[in-house]
Each structure stands twice: as C-alpha cells, then as structure tokens.
C-alpha cells in the first residue's frame, strides 16, 4: 500500500470499504467481491509503475473503466488478492487532427467526451450506445463495443487505429499509429481489442474520425412480424446503401412493456413488432426523406409494414430513439430479466425468434420473452422476464436453466452466445461449453505468453470449466 501510495499519491488510492464499494460491484449488481484497494493512476508511467509493483508482490490487477460492462468483467473475483485499477483520472484528449481524421485520447475519457471533441472539429466519432455518458474508451476498446451504428461504421475494432498498452510486466507498448495501412507483421492492437483487460491495460487509443453528419431521416415502423422486419432491413440496405446507419428491432411485447412502465414513452401506434430505421449523410442536400418515404411506401404496399412515423424534428427523433433506449429501465421496473446477447445469421433471425417464443412457452411457462436488438447485425437481446408479479430473484435455479437453453438455441443456429457484451465472469462457463477446444487452446496460449502468472484480470473469459453461474439471487439489473 505504501509503495502504491508513493506512485499515485493519496488521492489515487482508496482503501476504505465505503470508498471501494462502487468499484467492487458490477453495473447489474450481480457480482461483488472485495479488492485490497482501488488505484487511480494519472499517467501511463504511473500505470506502468503500479503494474511492476503488483508483479513483484504477486497481486492481481482488475482494470476498470466506467464499470458499465454487462458481464461483470471489470470487478474482482472471489478469493484472490487483487486491486482494481481505475483509469478514470486519465481522461485527456491528447490530440485531435481533422486533417488525419484521427484523435488520440486517454483510456479514461468517456465516449461522450470523444464524440464532443470530434464534433468540435466538424467530425464524427460514430460509436453510439446507451451507456455513452459513463463508458470509457479503455472499456469500449477492451469489450470491442458495438451499439447502434455498427452496421455502417463497424464496432470498436474497426474504429481503432492504434493503442498504447501497459503489459502485465509493466512494459509500455506504444502502438499509437494513425496509419490506415501497415502490413508489417502481427497487427498487435487486435490482441487488446475485445480481450477484456486480460492481456494488457489500455492507456490511450488513436481513433478514426468520419465526416460530420448533416442530414438524417428517422422512422419508427410497425411491421406485421419478424420476417417483415428483416425484409425491411434488406430493402433499406438495397435502396439506401451506405446511408443506412441504424436498424433496430423491438418486439411488440417489449414496446408494450416500455409504454406500461416508463412515463411519457408511448409508441405512436400498436403493432406486432417495430423497426427503428435511420438514414444519415454528411451531404446536407442528400434526399434521405424521399428515399425513406419510398422505402416505407413499398413496405406498406407489400403489407410488410402496417404503419410508420417519420421524425419531423430532432426532438421527435430523440423521442423515437428513447422508445428503444428505455427497454432496460422498463425491464427493471417489471422485476428484472434474465439477459442474453445472442447473434445469429440474418437469414435465421425470424426462425430464431419463433423458436425462443416456443421454448419459453413450453419449458418456462409464465415467463415472458422480451426481445429487441441490433437487427442489422443479427444481434438480439433475448431477455426473459419472470412471470407477472414476480422478480428475477424469484427464479432461483431456473435463471441458469433459461440461459443454458437460450444460448444453446442460438449456437445451434450457427450463432453466438455473446455478440457485443463479451464474456467477463458471467459468460465464462458458456465459453468453456460452446467454444471449440482449438479456440480455447489458442486463447490460453496467447494469455500465457503475455501474462504467464495469470495476474491480469483473473477469472475473466478463460477459467476452469463449470456450470452457468446461478444469478437468480441478484437484483437482475
Ligand atoms: C444501459 C447500457 C447500455 C449498453 N449498450 C451497449 C451496446 O449497445 N453495445 C455494447 O457493445 N455494449 C453496451 N453496453 C455494455 C457496456 O457499456 C460496454 O461493454 C462498454 O464498452 C463498457 O465500457 P466501460 O468503460 O464501462 O468498461 P468496464 O465495464 O469498466 O470494463 C469492461 C471490460 O473492459 C476491461 N477494461 C476496462 N478498461 C480497461 C482498460 N483501460 N484497459 C484494459 N481493460 C479495460 C474491464 O476489465 C472489463 O473486462 C451497455 C451497457 C449499459 C449499462
């Protein structure tokens, strides 16, 4: 502790239980374990010094960003001497270069801060998700975060040009390149994107910027069923090509839940399912409204769509987006949900949703599927609500059984059990269950090469095989 204090100062070391508490529990309050202390360095040099001290003392290090991750990856595991290393005091925008369309930022900056820094020089940083006010660049890189505009711009992996990383032994890798092309051996930055802080501490990132958006057209469309939703997505892709920047799916039941549970959030009309579509362009004269209207007319004539509204102002646009964003809050108010983050090939979305509805009705009677997600990416949040009047804590052992069944259903359809949230602690057993042994061996080999003592974020992603954790006793946020 004294050695750590000499590196980060009094303000950079939290040892009291009350000060540690918020760093020790994950956002969903599903995992909570003590850390020896919370360390908050202010520079890359301090991170490196902390890593060297921990290596010498045999102490594990849990990197933490905004702690908005949904798989308990940024909080301690049970029974290990470990510190939480929070990057929140390293939040500077180091450089913004509109000529290079790049920005270099420290890991602790929030996504909103990066979006705003890009906007100031008339550029767009396109990553966008509901946690953007709190989620930090280091966390977003380490989870390869996705969100609302992946179908146009890709997930975080596609937006990272370079990284600066402190390795488990305290060495600093400076890979802050702004180059778009560099075929000189292993592209090392990809070792750290999406690996959830198990291979190194991201201290800074060089990010790719895009032209600022000057025109948008946004529609909320009621469709007759899930197949009609995917047909609408395909039609939008064919008509709007690169201008299609958002295509979200919301099942009718999920929308009704929002209407019931969230004040001032009402869908403009009733439908079996909904699609939120957005076209955008840097060209202020782009005829996006006309394209969107033609698309919707076609869908109405083909009787795939039943009704639609097009936002007439930014205020109306935000109201439509809010209908989609409030689903998690509505679930909470309803007593929580067993959450999943599956992806399947686009061609199998409709079949998958039908199979999930059948599965829940047959095996978990009374439970209620609540399905929404990033349709354009084949990524569905398949959440299962407890029976009416119950909370998710009442599910007990059923919690894990539901997860096993939903994940198996996705994997059986050439899908994945974790599309964008990662593995962390919550999906480590699923990884062991579903991944090919060769995949697992390769992952272990890489982990061992970079972190032979297993001191960086232990118990995350790779761990001994086990059962799906039973999280029913939690609040189920
Ligand atoms: C309301 C809400 C909506 C969300 N919507 C989406 C969505 O649409 N798409 C999506 O992909 N995710 C979504 N998420 C999940 C979450 O916001 C993302 O996973 C985000 O990337 C986490 O960032 P964070 O800074 O909070 O990371 P944390 O939760 O702090 O950490 C996440 C992981 O990264 C590691 N880590 C953190 N910082 C570093 C670092 N500097 N170096 C190395 N490792 C590090 C941690 O150890 C942990 O394993 C949502 C979450 C919430 C609460």
From TrEMBL:
Question: Which cofactors must be present for this protein to function?
Answer: FAD
Look up keyword Coiled coil and say if it applies.
yes
Q: Which residues form a coiled coil?
A: 292-333
| Protein name as annotated | FAD-binding oxidoreductase
Which GO BP annotation is one of this protein's? respiratory electron transport chain
User: Residues in domain FAD-binding PCMH-type?
Assistant: 31-212
InterPro entries tied to this protein: FAD-bd_oxidored_4_C, FAD-bd_PCMH, FAD-bd_PCMH-like_sf, FAD-bd_PCMH_sub1, FAD-bd_PCMH_sub2, FAD-linked_Oxase-like_C, FAD-oxidored/transferase_4, Oxid_FAD_bind_N
Q: Which domain of life is it from?
A: Bacteria
GO MF term (any one): catalytic activity
Keywords, A to Z, come to:
Coiled coil, FAD, Flavoprotein
Stated family: Belongs to the FAD-binding oxidoreductase/transferase type 4 family.
Sorted alphabetically, which Gene3D superfamilies does this protein's record hold?
Answer: 3.30.465.10, 3.30.70.2190, 3.30.70.2740, Uridine Diphospho-n-acetylenolpyruvylglucosamine Reductase, domain 2, Vanillyl-alcohol Oxidase, Chain A, domain 4
């Amino acid at each position: 502790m004294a050695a750590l204090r000499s590196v980060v100062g009094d303000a950079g070391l939290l040892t009291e239980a009350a000060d540690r508490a918020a760093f020790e529990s994950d956002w969903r309050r599903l995992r909570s374990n003590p850390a020896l202390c919370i360390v908050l360095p202010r520079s890359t040099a301090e991170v490196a010094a902390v890593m060297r001290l921990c290596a010498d003392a045999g102490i594990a290090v849990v990197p933490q960003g905004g702690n908005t991750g949904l798989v308990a990856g940024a909080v301690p595991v049970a029974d290990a001497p470990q510190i939480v290393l929070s990057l929140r005091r390293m939040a500077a925008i180091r450089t913004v270069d509109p000529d290079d369309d790049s920005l270099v930022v420290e890991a602790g900056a929030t996504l909103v801060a990066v979006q705003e820094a890009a906007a100031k020089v008339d550029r767009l940083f396109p990553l966008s998700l509901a946690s953007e006010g709190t989620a930090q660049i280091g966390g977003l890189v380490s989870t390869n975060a996705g969100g609302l505009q992946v179908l146009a711009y890709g997930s975080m992996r596609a937006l990272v040009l370079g990284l600066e990383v402190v390795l488990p032994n305290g060495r600093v890798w400076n890979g802050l390149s702004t180059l778009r092309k560099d075929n000189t051996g292993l592209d090392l930055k990809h070792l750290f994107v999406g690996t959830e802080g198990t291979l190194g501490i991201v201290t800074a990132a060089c990010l790719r910027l895009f032209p600022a958006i000057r025109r948008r057209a946004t529609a909320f469309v009621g469709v007759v069923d899930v197949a009609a939703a995917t047909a609408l997505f395909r039609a939008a892709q064919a008509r709007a090509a690169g201008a299609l920047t958002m295509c979200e799916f919301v099942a009718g039941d999920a929308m009704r839940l929002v209407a019931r549970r969230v004040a001032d959030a009402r869908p403009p009309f009733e439908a079996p399912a909904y699609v939120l579509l957005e076209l955008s362009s840097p060209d202020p004269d782009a005829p996006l409204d006309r394209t969107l209207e033609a698309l919707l007319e076609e869908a109405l004539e083909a009787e795939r769509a039943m009704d639609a509204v097009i936002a007439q102002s930014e205020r109306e646009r935000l109201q439509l987006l809010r209908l989609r964003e409030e689903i998690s809050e509505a679930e909470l108010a309803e007593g929580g949900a067993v959450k999943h983050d599956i992806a399947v090939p686009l061609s199998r979305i409709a079949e998958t949703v039908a199979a999930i509805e059948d599965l829940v009705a047959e095996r978990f009677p009374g439970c209620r599927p609540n399905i929404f997600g990033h349709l354009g990416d084949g990524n569905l949040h398949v959440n299962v609500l407890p029976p009416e009047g119950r909370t998710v804590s009442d599910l007990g052992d059923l919690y894990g059984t539901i997860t096993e069944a939903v994940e198996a259903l996705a994997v059986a359809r050439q899908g994945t059990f974790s599309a964008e949230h990662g593995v962390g602690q919550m999906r480590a057993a699923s990884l062991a269950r579903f991944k090919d042994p060769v995949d697992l061996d390769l992952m272990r080999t890489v982990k061992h090469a970079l972190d032979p003592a297993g001191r960086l974020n232990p118990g995350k992603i790779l761990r001994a095989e086990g059962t799906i954790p039973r999280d029913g006793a939690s609040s189920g946020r």
